[in-house]
Design a protein that fits this description.
The relative contact order is 0.09. The strands form five sheets. This protein has a five-stranded mixed β-sheet with strand order 2-1-5-3-4. It has a five-stranded antiparallel β-sheet with strand order 10-11-16-12-13. Strand 3 (49-56) and strand 4 form a beta hairpin. It is built from 18 helices and 20 strands. It is globular and about 70 Å long. By secondary structure, the chain is of the alpha+beta class.
Length: 476
């Protein structure tokens, strides 16, 4: 019972763990590590960025994550680095910190520790290290310095060597094949190691909340101030983290983090890779999972509309066995999914697009990086001899669930690939959807935007550069 993790080579043990206590609060209030800052408390600003490491064979895979929405039980069996971990024994600065200081990359300094941790992860080969510096720090916000000096420090600091041999050995000693659990004032949590153990726990605790990356549930606690009585943490179930690619398609375990799925999805189609690049910041993609994004049923989740348009199939599992369904059938209504008691999302299979397919996926949001969709449109058309032979179109942000546009599909299918056809199909979207008005956009804006995304596909096929972004991508 309880949580054990490594911090700077030392084992930290916490016996009485509140299941929704955040790592950020524990660092600041219980451990005195105040270099990790609290900014937004929702995984958006990056001021609380830390590095969490887990075993990957005989190595340690480090990830930058947001401490503000990481629950303490999620740290069990892992290693942790905070900005205090980077200091040298003789008091000198880490090379990255020295470069940040020399470049004038900090002004008020509040956001600086988070930037340092994100960039240090890049220097030591952490998850996402192969991304451009701008992408690595897209989940970190600065209000006073400007990003030029920060980007310069990230570019100037080359790879840094770490000897993690002792960390590997210590993590192996911490690892367990059994379910870890805890109880705090009558509230309980479990961290199973196998799918079979998870299935049993769901039958024993039908009201339990499953948590993978906590990128959504974390906000229920920090912003909604909700009390959750029983939680089941899924990150230690290796069989939910498989990635299988073949000529027919791609299968992703429900526990695969978006950062790990990025390359495989980009190989399936470049637009899928670009969509994943814009899901939160790197810290969010290092925690949030493909299955979690599906299972919570959000109408504005970025992944589901694209996967529905690609013809994805979902596999659910329970102690009784497995069942598979088209992904769109899983979403019944707002907050309601086709998941029976005791079931959990096990995997999603995405077929490889046909050779004659025209695929286009677009996300519209108020800012380019690290923002929630106002509208997300995904289009998958088959075209032969100038005629559209089939169409799969799905949108997020247009209804109570991610949903296909059946009237729009019908207006396209069997018709020539012409602007007139696309105009008729765009008009049919008003049959498919009656979106709500909220802070991200009015109903009319969403309808107009959805129609524009469809027409954008047509222009793109004609070779037209339809936005500044497209021109930048096309010409490097």
């Amino acid at each position: 019972m309880g949580v054990r993790f490594l911090l700077d080579g030392e084992v930290v043990e916490i016996a009485d763990v509140d299941p929704t206590a955040t790592l950020l609060d524990h660092l600041r209030y219980n451990m005195g590590r105040t270099g990790t800052k609290e900014g937004c408390a929702e995984g958006d600003c990056g001021a609380c960025t830390v590095l969490v490491g887990e075993l990957a064979g005989d190595n340690v895979q480090w990830r930058a994550v947001n401490a503000c929405i990481t629950f303490l039980p999620m740290l069990d069996g892992r290693a942790l680095m905070t900005v205090e971990s980077l200091g040298c024994a003789d008091g000198t600065l880490n090379p990255l910190q020295a470069c940040m200081a020399a470049n004038g990359s900090s002004q008020c300094g509040f956001c600086t520790p988070g930037f340092v941790m994100s960039l240090y992860g890049r220097c030591i080969g952490a998850s996402g290290h192969d991304l451009p510096v701008a992408d690595v720090i897209a989940g970190n916000l600065c209000r006073c310095t400007g990003y030029g000096p920060i980007l310069a420090a990230g570019e100037e600091t080359g790879p840094l060597t770490r000897d993690d041999a002792a960390v590997v050995l210590a993590l192996k000693n911490l690892s367990s094949r059994e379910t870890v659990l805890g109880n705090h004032q009558g509230r309980q949590w479990f961290a199973p190691r196998t799918g079979a153990a998870l299935a049993e726990l769901l039958l024993e605790h039908p009201g339990a909340r499953m948590v993978a990356g906590a990128t959504d549930v974390g906000l229920w606690v920090t912003k909604g101030l909700r009390t959750i009585e029983t939680l089941i943490f899924l990150a230690n179930i290796d069989e939910l983290r498989g990635i299988e690619e073949d000529a027919k398609g791609l299968r992703l375990g429900a526990g695969v983090r978006y950062a790990d799925a990025h390359a495989a999805l980009a190989r399936l189609h470049p637009d899928l890779g670009e969509l994943v690049r814009r899901i939160g910041g790197l810290q969010v993609r290092n925690a949030g999972t493909v299955g979690g994004n599906i299972a919570n049923g959000s109408p504005i989740g970025d992944g589901p509309p694209a996967l529905i348009a690609m013809g994805a199939e979902l596999t659910l599992r329970s102690r009784e066995g497995r069942r598979t369904m088209p992904l769109e059938a899983y979403f019944l209504d707002y907050g309601k999914q086709d998941r029976k008691p005791g079931e959990f999302v096990e995997s999603v299979w995405i077929p490889r697009p046909a050779k004659d397919a025209v695929v286009h996926i677009s996300k519209l949001s108020r800012r380019f990086d690290s923002d929630i969709s106002a509208v997300c449109g995904a289009f998958n058309l088959s075209v032969a001899a100038g005629t559209i032979t089939s169409a799969r179109i799905a949108f997020g942000g247009m209804a109570a669930t991610p949903r296909r546009a059946h009237a729009c599909e019908a207006a396209l299918t069997g018709r020539p690939f012409t602007r007139a056809t696309f105009d008729d199909a765009a008009a049919a979207l008003r049959i498919d959807y009656a979106p709500l008005t909220d802070v991200r956009g009015s109903s009319e804006y969403r309808l107009e935007a959805a129609a524009s995304l469809l027409l954008r596909l047509w222009h793109g096929v004609q070779g037209d550069a339809v936005s500044v972004l497209d021109r930048r991508i096309a010409h490097g």
